[in-house]
């Protein structure tokens, strides 16, 4: 049995590094702002390395700054890992990613405490830049490991609103490792990831543990709208090429269309130029995040939006956004694909290890409390599953709130998750 | 007669300070980016002071950094001024404001060249921060002079996207003057302002000189939309309080409604938080610039938008923006008034001086080439007209383009404007 109190205490003590906004009165009612590869992330990483070394682990850092801590087992062979991430959103919480890493460390501590000898090596991974918040490609480092991105392109990625690159920041904080970032050079035996659900399903259905079968598909785009700067006071609507008004129409339409297709659409970043109250902006750039359970549905939505955006920017009416005729002279629209994460199915063997572990922990009345589900968010497990048996464990979070300082997972649910994780790893190791 | 070549040459030579984007192949086909009180503005100011002093003017700087250069006349009494501004938009052109100041200086040079003795003093004014681009209240310094803003509030104004205040920047560049910024302490006898039209009317009607009768009303607001940060991948539309989606609807609706009412609406600035592709923004702030010829029409639009924004943010449908039902849980909307510039009527006596001067310059076929018109933009003349006889002179600019690097006024039109300005000043001085 894991030490639930120790897990809770250690997790929150490390949340000193990268503290965010306070949202409540309790000692842990403070959000996180630990952007990847920043100074606070370095502190959390240093703690990770020290702690796992002190548990007797061999610690290696790869070329993307991913950290692999391994506890030796009886036989040689790729380790069974618990993996997740210590970076957060700019206004994130204390559980998204962080819980998964801490639960992995707690699992290793428990194995040590109980002198458990595993068949093969076991370990914990801290993946770099899972969030994609600072460098805007999510899970890029497990992606490089999986061969989905080249190291070269990953290194060049520039931070949102700044100039630093992933490589320059890895160097700056001393986490540019020598191990090749590759599933071939550094294989994984199995990957289990504990994570808060980040949605309301478990909580609202009374579920305790989600055995995650896979993740929905998503794509991230940068959309650039080009019009013409002009004076707000002297330029009639019909003479404008208003990139901001056009962007507003595109954003509204993307939501209308996604909703009609049973998908999601979101814009989380928007920049404009020149940025003056009395100049109609000639340039707007915004992010578009679209999601669906099915790759085919997502592709259909993407194709439809590409056509519709073009038509809307040219003043044609689509879903009412140009109905009132403030169309002006039109703008151009350019799409750039930043992230393409297809729908993922995890491994039945691993999912079963999670289910069995959860049921044995919850005991006789486990029935409805363990449920199979699909992840709305992407996770590093999406990439590990391309080259290693993988499954995830979800625990409830309050009101499904995540990517928000008020994200919350109770000590009980954190403990349940960590216990299930340990059980799943040991089950898989024996199997 | 003014020296048209000298005017053109000197104007463009000073455009070295604060050069912007090149948009064509010609030597002057380069825009301007001379934000008020920046280093380039200081260079232009230093040039203004030196030049007018070398012409024998007495130069004074007031507490808002407005610069008054005065050429002595026969009798004592408040001077007849040519006034405009040397600051530009971040992506501005070489004529908006700059032409008016240079034409004023050219008028003084011509008076010197021809040994003209005026009845009263004459002079040129360079007003600080006319554009309202860096510190977001337009014409704030002529506004302080007119008593429309307190010096204290003007000093506190913070730059867009930064921390500097108007006062700290006035101090930094050495233009915090000792003269009181007040129409009482420093009265103006009359104010003539030459400016490019910034719209297409003169050009498309074959007009050469606009005798400007007044300016339309406008108001600037900062609108803050508050929702809740959440995960883009795990939060269904109905559980979101999406501040960006709501802002998109409000921006679209403001255009629809303004158009229906024969007004203008524009959004030139938009900021959001936290600014991550996979977090639905919980906070968006944008500028709203609304304009109308009639104060009453503008007030009606403002009132309607205040009600409509509230309803739209709460998910009610107004003008179709919520028709598709992606309304979620709603957001709050807060309005802040930044600039209130009522409709302005200039002085008939001054307008007549402009008309007569233009007609005498254009000669026999002047008929349709001089036309009375209303300004779509605000100008420092709006504030001087509260306490001094005022009129403006418009000259055509290509395609009505302004607040854009490609803003262009031909040498002929620049010269016509300066000649009309000199004539109007001398006519008013005699009168
Ligand atoms: N779990 C999580 O927030 N992952 C980031 C990638 C995504 O936006 O789905
Ligand atoms: N002329 C000019 O651009 N003035 C700035 C104030 C306004 O936006 O009307």
UniProtKB/TrEMBL annotation, chains A, B:
Pfam families: M20_dimer, Peptidase_M20. InterPro entries: Amidase_Cbmase (IPR010158), Bact_exopeptidase_dim_dom (IPR036264), Peptidase_M20 (IPR002933), Peptidase_M20_dimer (IPR011650). Keywords: Hydrolase. Transmembrane segments: none annotated. It comes from the Eukaryota. Belongs to the peptidase M20A family. This is Amidase.
């Amino acid at each position: 049995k894991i030490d639930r109190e120790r897990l809770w205490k250690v997790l929150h003590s490390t949340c000193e590094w990268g503290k965010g906004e306070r949202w409540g009165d309790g000692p842990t009612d403070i959000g996180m702002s630990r952007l990847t590869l920043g100074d606070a992330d370095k502190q959390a990483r240093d703690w990770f390395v020290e702690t796992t070394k002190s548990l007797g682990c061999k610690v290696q850092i790869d070329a993307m700054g991913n950290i692999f801590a391994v506890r030796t087992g009886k036989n040689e062979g790729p380790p069974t890992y618990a993996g997740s991430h210590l970076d957060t959103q700019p206004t994130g919480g204390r559980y998204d990613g962080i819980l998964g890493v801490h639960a992995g460390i707690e699992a290793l501590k428990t194995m040590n405490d109980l002198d458990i000898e595993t068949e093969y090596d076991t370990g914990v991974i801290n993946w770099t830049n899972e969030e994609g918040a600072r460098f805007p490609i999510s899970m890029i480092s497990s992606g490089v490991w999986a061969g989905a991105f080249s190291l070269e392109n990953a290194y060049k990625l520039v931070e949102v609103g700044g100039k630093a690159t992933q490589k320059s920041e890895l160097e700056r904080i001393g986490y540019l490792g020598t191990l090749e970032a590759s599933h071939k050079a550094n294989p994984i035996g199995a990957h289990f990831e504990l994570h808060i659900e980040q949605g309301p399903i478990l909580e609202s259905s009374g579920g305790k543990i989600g055995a995650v079968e896979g993740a929905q598909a998503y794509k991230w785009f940068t959309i650039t709208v080009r019009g013409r700067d002009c004076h707000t006071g002297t330029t009639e609507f019909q003479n404008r090429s208003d990139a901001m008004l056009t962007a507003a129409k595109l954003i509204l339409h993307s939501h209308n269309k996604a909703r009609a297709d049973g998908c999601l659409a979101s814009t989380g970043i928007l920049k404009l130029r020149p940025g003056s109250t009395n100049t109609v902006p000639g340039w707007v750039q915004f992010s578009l995040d679209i999601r669906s359970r099915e790759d085919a549905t997502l592709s259909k939505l993407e194709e439809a939006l590409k056509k519709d955006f073009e038509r809307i920017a040219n003043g044609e009416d689509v879903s009412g956004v140009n109905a009132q005729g403030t169309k002006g002279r039109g703008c151009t629209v350019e799409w750039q694909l930043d992230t393409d994460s297809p729908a993922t199915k995890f491994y039945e063997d691993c999912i079963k290890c999670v289910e069995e572990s959860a049921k044995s922990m919850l005991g006789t009345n486990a029935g409805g409390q363990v449920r199979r589900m699909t992840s709305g968010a992407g996770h590093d497990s999406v990439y590990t599953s391309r080259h290693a048996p993988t499954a995830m464990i979800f625990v409830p979070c309050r009101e499904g709130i995540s990517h928000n300082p008020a994200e919350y997972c109770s000590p009980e649910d954190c403990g349940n998750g960590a216990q299930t994780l340990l059980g799943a790893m040991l089950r898989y190791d024996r199997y």
